[in-house]
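Ligand-bound model needed. heme C.
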Amino acid sequence: MRILPYAVAALFVAATPVRATRAEYDVAMLKLATHSGCMVCHSILPIPKRADGLPPIAPAWRDIAIKYRDDPRASDRLTRTVMTGSNPYSRHWAGKVSVVTMPPNAAAVTEADARVLVNWILVLVP
Ligand code: HEC
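Prediction:
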């Protein structure tokens, strides 16, 4: 059975996952977030008040990660919020960010990509 070693080798290669390092993951996600328009409003780390004295446009993603760190359903809920926009009558960041609500992002990002982004945001805890 000469073929066996090759078959075993092929199996081994197929079973070995291709793993990105944390830095590669961060770079890829930031690129996706930038292409999806998220970074127009969001920052990764909290920013102080803007030069005009107004609060930031949107919550920093590290603050979102901290707020939902113990919420096992956050991934599903936030993915839906990203796709459909935030509810202007029940704001989660009222008083902390500008008065503009998050518009639906469905035209800019697929639901699968939104989920990938939300899952990345949720691990940005310090
Ligand atoms: C036009 C500005 C804008 C854009 C573009 C935008 N957001 Fe937001 N986002 C906001 C604001 C404002 C809030 C705070 C909403 C609130 O107070 O409930 C927010 C909240 C969020 C939240 C937290 C929601 C909650 O209920 O706490 C997540 C997660 C989020 N955005 C992800 C994204 C992602 C991912 C993208 C890109 C696909 C994106 N946002 C694009 C303005 C924006």
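The radius of gyration is 19 Å.
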